[in-house]
Amino acid sequence: xxxxxxxxxxxxxxxxxxxxxxxxxxxxxxxxxINELDKIASQLVADDEVKVVILTGAGxxxxxxxxxxxxxxxxxxxxxxxxxxxxxxxxxxxENLPKPVIAAVNGYAxxxxxxxxxxxxxxxxxxNAKFGQPEVSLGIPPGFAGTQRLPRLVGKGRAKELLFxxxxxxxxxxxxxxxxxxxxxxxxxxNAAKAMANKIMSRAPIAVQVCKSCVNEGxxxxxxxxxxxxxxxxxxxxxxADQKExxxxxxEKRKPNFSGK
Length: 261
Ligand code: CAA
What we know:
Elements: E1 7-12, E2 15-20, H1 31-46, E3 52-57, E4 62-64, H2 69-72, H3 77-95, E5 101-105, E6 108-110, H4 112-119, E7 122-126, E8 130-132, H5 146-154, H6 156-165, E9 168-170, H7 171-176, E10 182-184, H8 189-201, H9 205-218, H10 223-236, H11 241-251
Parallel strand pairs: 2-3, 3-5, 4-6, 5-7, 6-8, 7-10
Antiparallel strand pairs: 1-2, 8-9
Helix pairs in contact: 1-3, 3-4, 4-5, 5-6, 9-10
The protein binds acetoacetyl-coenzyme A.
């Protein structure tokens, strides 16, 4: 139906829900799934009906239990390097998708699973979610940018503890350290993600997109360059109809009706 073997795609009311669907392997990421994620990311960018993306895993046990260990077991050094580069490029594409991406973490988010959740803009966790980077138990470090995105999200010390021990943490702890934005009951997870998506969609779309690019661009450069970029895009937004509408609506004491132009 969706044209994908390992992914499901559902679209409704501006929201695309992408479900990683390999429940027998707890949605572990093999090459076919990574390639499909690449393809679906391009499709979602091009689809004007899609305003916000939600990424989740099939079943009630796992979001994604990591990269597929069976697939990696006999890799050579070059295979490993190419595998990391392939997935890193796809995760970068997800991180830089010009639309908000919310991870709805419905169970284990381990290794590559935690890494893909961290490439999303926001993580909403179900109470049964478990997060971790267990790679050191397999004789490898994370290879899908976990050593880079984890310290950026939770700080150096906590990231190193998780990376060195391979410990799993529950949703409450993930929330406490800033890895999860919010924790909800399992049956509420998709609705909570959709509620957040709907709230974001009620705001000015270009302004939201610009916020995303300011944060993403800014975190990789010095403060001076980051604020300079912010000033440029702040200025550009005064060329949008939505700036006129947003400020006029405020002054007229009514709700804005944004056109995304
Ligand atoms: N790769 C391949 N298969 C996996 C998998 C993975 N990452 N995780 C789970 N599976 C498979 C299991 O082999 C099992 O398959 P069979 O039924 O055919 O035996 C099935 O999914 C169900 O898993 P379990 O029976 O193990 O379920 P459990 O409830 O006992 O344990 C779990 C759940 C704690 C998540 C456990 O499956 C587990 O530890 N999985 C591996 C987690 C992991 O190490 N992830 C990191 C991978 S490395 C990585 O991601 C590297 C990177 O950065 C790129």
